[in-house]
Amino acid sequence: MSPAFHAARRALLSDPLTNKGTAFIEAERDRFGLHGLLPPHVGTLESQIVRRRRVLDGMADDFHRYAFLRELQDSNEILFHALVQADLPRMLPLVYTPTVGAGCERFSEIWRKPRGLFLSYPNRGRIADILADPALDRVKVIVVSDGERILGLGDQGAGGMGIPIGKLALYTACAGLHPAEVLPILLDVGTDNAALRDDPLYVGWRNPRIRGQDYAAFVDTFVEAVAARWPNVLLQWEDFAGHNAYDLLARYRDRLLSFNDDIQGTAATAVGTLLSAIRRTGASLTGQRIVLFGAGAAGSGVAELLVQALRAEGLDEAAARARIWAVDRDGLILSDMPKLTAPQALLARDPAEVADWTRDADGGLGLLDTVQAVRPTVLIGASGQAGAFTEAVVRAMAAGCATPVIFPLSNPVSRAEAHPADVLAWTDGRAVVGTGSPFGVAGVTQVNNVYIFPGVGLGAIAAGATRVTDGMFMAAARALGAMGGAGDTLLPPIDALREVALHIAVVVAQAAVADGVATAPADALTAERIAALMWDARYD
């Protein structure tokens, strides 16, 4: 055998997209010279899944299971995706929330092999060259983060790459994107997390975060390079801090096909679940009094989609906004507060409205004061503030509402506004509860963005959309709310996520046609046609 042949056979085994491990059959072993490099046993994909499950069962905790699955993805990607698809209820918490939080915090500790692209600020002049790799020719979806606001954990720097990797694993599992069609990217512009910069194991650029015009120019260089390399790619912004999340979405949503999952995906998931909840209570959306705790990117996104939904039910904009009370770190948001962001200003209440409200000892209007005054029917948390929904807050809400709808949505579990078991206990079991993380409490729905973003991405791609519109997200939210769940749950089960993604994709593609942004004909956007685009994990 020539040196080139020896190199090629080892390359076949080292590439996670071509490596089958023991599943290479005898004819393949003969053809590619794999004898001796593999044990003689010829396995199947199914037997390999059984072997990996046994390893997972023997591990002590979920973080080590996460690390094992990451290594499996980097060695045999088809097997990784087949394992995830075969048992989504078990695998979803391991490859994404809540375990991905620890994966991001300990990313430098477990990094082994290249996956995705790290575009660091010192390499800003090389971005186009880095993207030019022919191995990336098939890319259809990019998930990008700068690592500044990872879940509720804050600045994780280069460790934030765990989020794009995890999100794209779900694009493959739920929406059927081939793993060669997805690309995770981390914009490494430094970190303000001093502990990371001082950690000798940290793999990122050891520099305080670049901000201002330098940051804007860097992101613009990145977007221009992406648009030139893949004119029709879908770019999903993920876990950017609030001060950047809205700016980037506004700046680029009409320049290329893109959306922000923290703003728009969270909003559609929360609104869809709320529609399911109020249908169960027999009430109308326009009759709800909604308190929103946390008015950053996620909370503000939820509020704006709620306004759209309320207006669609017949309210004018002023009346729709009057149904929402937003509370942030400084209390109920009032129009005379300094330094409100543009989205927060839209949610601000008139100080005259609250002049006679009971205030706390410091003269402020905190969450408890607001709940006691408003007597809300819905309480949504998107704050990242663990335990913010205290017993006093929940009991005050339950005292004014027969069937309170309470969604502590912050991730991971350590940042949840309340434990759902406590919420049920404090409301004597009357609350309808949805959580961002899985808690394993009977009757509690996991309100996870995975119900929305894979279907939105698949629908946008199938439609050949030129941009992602608000109408596409509203259609996704309504479709999710109409699907409902079994028993006490508000949404379909996790093991139905592939069917959910297909259904969402169809309505999103149709909404793209209605909004005039689709390039594919409407008659090509049937469930059967879109399902044919979805890949199943199997060996060629």
Automatic annotation (TrEMBL):
- The highest taxon in the source lineage is Bacteria
Which residues are noted in the entry as (S)-malate-binding? R149, N411, N448
- State a single Pfam family of this protein: Malic_M
Gene Ontology molecular function: any one = NAD binding
Does the entry feature the keyword Zinc, yes or no?
Answer: no
InterPro entries given for it?
Aminoacid_DH-like_N_sf, Malic_N_dom, Malic_N_dom_sf, Malic_NAD-bd, Malic_OxRdtase, NAD(P)-bd_dom_sf
Name the species this protein comes from. Sphingomonas liriopis
Protein family per UniProt: Belongs to the malic enzymes family.
- Keyword annotations: Metal-binding, NAD, Oxidoreductase
- List positions binding a divalent metal cation: E238, D239, D262
Cofactor stoichiometry and binding?
A: Divalent metal cations. Prefers magnesium or manganese.
What range(s) does the Malic enzyme NAD-binding domain occupy? 263-513
Instruction: Return the protein name.
Output: NAD-dependent malic enzyme
What residues does the Malic enzyme N-terminal domain cover? 73-253
Biological process terms in GO annotation: malate metabolic process
According to the record, the segments passing through the membrane are none
Q: Where is the active site?
A: Y96 (proton donor), K167 (proton acceptor)
Name any cofactors this protein relies on. Answer: Mg(2+); Mn(2+)
